[in-house]
Amino acid sequence: MTARIIALSNQKGGVGKTTTAINLATALAACGNRVMVIDFDPQGNTTTGFGVDKRNLKASSYSLLMGESDLATATVKTSVPGLWLVPSTIHLSGAEVELVPVMARENRLKDALLPAHEIYDYVFIDCPPSLGLLTINALVASTDIMIPLQCEFFAMEGLSQLFKTIDLVKRNLNPQLELLGVLLTMFDKRNNLAQQVVNDVREHLGDKVFDTIIPRNVRLSEAPSHGAPGLIYDVKSPGSQAYIRLAAELMQRLTVPAVLPEGTPAGTTAQAA
Ligand SMILES: Nc1ncnc2c1ncn2[C@@H]1O[C@H](COP(=O)(O)OP(=O)(O)O)[C@@H](O)[C@H]1O
Ligand SMILES: [Mg+2]
């Protein structure tokens, strides 16, 4: 088993990184995958969203990053079968500064996550809203990056800076990092501008944009205060249903096409077994 390690990143806050980490991970676990979410934002919204109490934690993404605990120690079970979490606390906010004098500081998370490759199918890293050392650590540790974009005016603002960062990481630190896709979130069909934003983003980024669009749905924003993923809180809501479709699309995108037997005529379509 080799995990897909997917960084959810966008230096803008409030675009749906955390909501996507929680609900996409839950949908993938519900399909029988072994899934882990690493809360890598000092705000710890993913941790709260899973109903995990931050006060009595033995370890966290901070201690994992600083080499004070190993992955197994830092991992907690969530209430979702097949889904594990490395929680975050406010201590993580000190890491950006504390890591500065450390050797190979960009590789800390990658090294800490090595055991995850053999245990999980999917690992999501919920990044903080900045392009600092925490996000660099996440991008170096990942096989893929997924970028949530809110369907609002200025959605693509700042994207070129993010792409530049991805490029730098690819060239210097992690050549295998792939842009898995851009996810449009919080789509409001009553807002005339939203469809325009969708069209613009698709025109600029083409097939890098997921077909699935996440609608604005109050059930998704209510769920964290109940300490449960939207999918558990209200599976029938349009938001939960969209994340289920996204999970299906993601699994399909990541399926390696079947290798054709030698001598198969050109133009024959591979059929998944
Ligand atoms: N599809 C959605 N519909 C309604 N509210 C949403 C949706 N996605 C996110 N939210 C809400 O918007 C806010 C920001 O989302 P969040 O996932 O925390 O973004 P980020 O992690 O990028 O800062 C949160 O209050 C969240 O509950
Ligand atoms: Mg967040």
Adjacency order of strands in the biggest sheet: 3-4-2-5-1-6-7-8
Radius of gyration over alpha carbons?
Answer: 19 Å
Number of strands: 8
Helix percentage range: 25-40%
Q: Flag low-confidence runs.
A: 269-273
Structural class: alpha/beta
Report the CATH superfamily.
P-loop containing nucleotide triphosphate hydrolases
**Largest β sheet strand count, sense and barrel closure:** 8 strands, mixed
What is the CATH architecture descriptor? 3-Layer(aba) Sandwich
Number of domains: 1
Broad shape: globular
Say what the CATH topology is: Rossmann fold
Q: Summary?
A:
With 273 residues, this protein is of the alpha/beta class. It has helices at residues 17-30, 45-49, 61-65, 71-74, 95-98, 108-112, 133-141, 159-172, 192-205, 218-222, 230-233, 238-254, and strands spanning 4-8, 35-39, 76-77, 83-86, 122-126, 144-150, 178-187, 209-215.
Write up this protein.
The chain has 12 helices and 8 strands. By secondary structure, it is α/β, with parallel strands linked by helices. It has one domain (4-254): Rossmann fold. Strand 3 and strand 4 (83-86) form a beta hairpin. Helix 1 (17-30) packs across helix 12. The longest helix is centred in the C-terminal third of the chain and has 17 residues, at 238-254. Residues 269-273 have low confidence and may be disordered.
